[in-house]
Amino acid sequence: MATETTKSIFWRGVRDGAPFILVIIPFSTLFGVVATEAGLSVFETLTMSVLVIAGAAQFTAVELLRNDVPTVIALVSALAVNLRMAMYSASLTPYLGKATLGQRAWAAYFLVDQTFACSVLKFEQNPDWTIGQRLTYFFAVAVPICPLWYLFTVIGALIGNSIPESFALDFAIPITFLALIAPMLRTRAHLAAAFVSVVAALLLNGLVYNLGLLVAGILGMMAGAQVELIDSLRKEREGGA
C-alpha cells in the first residue's frame, strides 16, 4: 500500500531476497571453483562476477572456454543466455521507467533473476506504490544476494579444488532456476515456452559448442510467442462475439 513506509518496504525486500542465500552461496562458490579451474586468476574471477553479475552467463562462458570452444562462440552463447534480461527489463519498464537515468542504470546493473522475480510480483500486487517505493523494494531484494555473490565467488576461487566432490555444490544451479521459474509459469504461453525449451535442450544436447542451449532458448521463445498470439486472437474473437 502507498501508506507503507520506505523502511518497511525495504525490510520486506530484504526478507523476500533472503531465502535465495541458501542457493547463492553454493552457486557463487561453485563458479569461483570452475573459473579458477578454467585458468582464471582470483582477481579475474572476481572481476567477472562484479562486471557481469549474471551467474548463468558466467557459467556458460567459462565452461565453453574450458572446453576449448572458440571465444566468439562462448561470448555469443553467454549473451544468448542473458537475453532474458532484455525481457526482464521490458517487463519492469512500466513500473520503473519514470525513474531517473542514474536510478535506472543502477537498477539495470542489479537486474538479476532474483530481483526481477521478486519485484515484478510485488509491483503487480501493489500498483499504488510510488517510483521511490518500487526502487526501494527492488534494491532491497539485492542486499542479501549480490554482496554474497561477490564474496563467495572469491572464496570459491581461493579454495578451488580443495572442495570435496561429495559436497555436490552444483545442485544449486538447477534448484535456483526452479525456484525462480516455477512461480512465474502462470499462463499457457509460459508453459509452452518452458516445455519446448526443455525438450529441445534435451534433444539437441549433442550439438557442437553447446549450441543446443542457444537453439532451445530460441525455440522456446518462439513457442511462447505463438501461443500468446493464439490466445490473444481467441480473446478478441470472444470479446467481439
From TrEMBL:
Statement: the UniProt record of this protein carries the keyword ATP-binding: no
Annotated source species: Roseovarius bejariae
Family: Belongs to the AzlC family.
Residue intervals passing through the bilayer: 20-40, 46-65, 72-93, 135-160, 166-185, 192-219
Location in or out of the cell: Cell membrane
Pfam families assigned to the protein according to its UniProt record, in alphabetical order: AzlC
Top-rank lineage group of the source organism: Bacteria
Membrane topology category: Multi-pass membrane protein
Statement: the UniProt record of this protein carries the keyword Transmembrane: yes
Protein's name according to its UniProt entry: Branched-chain amino acid ABC transporter permease
InterPro entries: Brnchd-chn_aa_trnsp_permease
GO BP annotations, alphabetical order: L-valine transmembrane transport
Keyword set, alphabetical order: Cell membrane, Membrane, Transmembrane, Transmembrane helix, Transport
GO CC annotation terms, alphabetical: plasma membrane
